[in-house]
Fold this protein.
Amino acid sequence: MTDVTVQEMAGQVADLMEARLGLRGNGLADKVRRGRRVLPRRIRREAEYLVQAAEQARVPKLQVQLDQTRISAAYDTCVGYLKPLGAAARRRALFLDMLTGIGMAVFAAIVLVILMIAWRGHS
């Protein structure tokens, strides 16, 4: 794995972030920073590692310190998360999240009403 391939990996992840999540910015570092709320913690951590490895790969003396298997694992994790995401899947997930939130609010309201009725002694 050379400097070019680490840079290409970072570029591909950045392109996927822009295509799948709509994150704009110059390079992977900027897109990861902008996508803090969109990306899960594990994926964000792997993307940040790719950013760090890409920066380190630019310096020839630091290329020796790169962990090739860790870089490949980080790349595979990011691509595995970003690849299947499509607009329809995101909309479906958003709808289900909203429906779950509404259901929990209705359940909490019913429980509060029942507790209030029981507390006041109405039988």
